[in-house]
Design brief:
Elements lengths: L5 H19 L10 H10 L2 H9 L3 H18 L7 E5 L3 E3 L5 E10 L6 E6 L9 E6 L8 E13 L2 E14 L2 E4 L5 E5 L10 E4 L2 E4 L5 E3 L9 E4 L2 E5 L6
Parallel strand pairs: 2-7
Antiparallel strand pairs: 1-3, 3-5, 4-6, 6-7, 8-9, 9-12, 10-11, 10-13, 13-14
Length: 243
């Protein structure tokens, strides 16, 4: 089982599959019967095609598909994974008025122990290490913002030194809640108006989970002046009823 985050794990698997499986099949793909399969492997060798597909998947879906493909590959031949390294970080962070510091680490496949990295981007400065600290600053304005991180990883594979590059980005989301005039419908979103789906919305002492489009619907109006929190971060108060 790989320690890579789900999307990175699936991308790594697809790259290794497209590289090694044709040789393992020993010319079988040249048969007209496997024309569609050969074309599919060629598409997997296109980084833009893979990245586009990964961007549309949830982490859960990517992890499920990686498990499925690994199992089916093992039915045909030995699974051969190329060396890979990835930054373990959340895909998004809800952030309030203060910066957030968050530990980062590296996950590796096929590398010897003892790797270290030079970190760049939205991290605190420090000596080469397998770990770093993300410094996420509150978004300004209404535009989508991300924290970009890059690691130049110095490692070895079976005793041979190598350098690998790992990079990722974390979406920074400042909470906002739009309350309907009757105080029964609350729309949770970020500073750019992107819905907060499947998030914890606290309305005073009550806790709700946002649904489709970031919506929470109440049976009775929320009390005026009650504090709102999205993912534990203050997001305003319930306004008074309009006349």
């Amino acid at each position: 089982m790989s320690g890579l985050p789900p999307r990175q794990r699936l991308g790594h698997l697809l790259r290794s599959l497209s590289k090694h499986l044709p040789d393992q099949l020993d010319g079988l793909l040249e048969n007209a019967r496997f024309k569609d399969g050969a074309a599919a492997l060629q598409r997997l060798a296109d980084p833009s095609h893979v990245e586009k597909a990964l961007s549309r998947m949830s982490p859960e879906e990517a992890g499920w598909l990686a498990d499925l493909l690994t199992g089916r590959w093992s039915w045909i031949a030995d699974v051969q994974l190329d060396p890979e390294v990835a930054i373990v970080a959340p895909e998004e962070l809800w952030i309030g008025a203060e910066p957030i510091r968050l530990p980062l680490s590296l996950a590796a496949v096929g590398l010897d122990e003892g790797l270290e990295a030079l970190w760049e981007g939205a991290v605190l400065p420090g000596p080469p290490s397998s770990k770093a600290t993300l410094l996420a600053k509150p978004p300004e304005g209404k535009a989508p913002e991300v924290a970009r991180i890059r690691a130049q990883v110095r490692a070895s594979v079976k005793g041979q030194r190598c350098v690998l590059i790992a990079q990722t980005q974390v979406a920074l989301r400042r909470p906002s809640v739009v309350v309907s005039d009757d105080r029964r419908r609350l729309l949770a979103q970020d500073q750019a108006g992107r819905p907060a789906v499947g998030c914890r919305l606290e309305i005073g002492a009550e806790v709700h989970l946002t649904g489709t489009g970031g919506l929470v619907e109440l049976e009775v109006p929320a009390p005026s002046g009650v504090l709102l929190k999205l993912e534990g971060i203050p997001a305003g108060r319930i306004p008074g009823a309009k006349p």
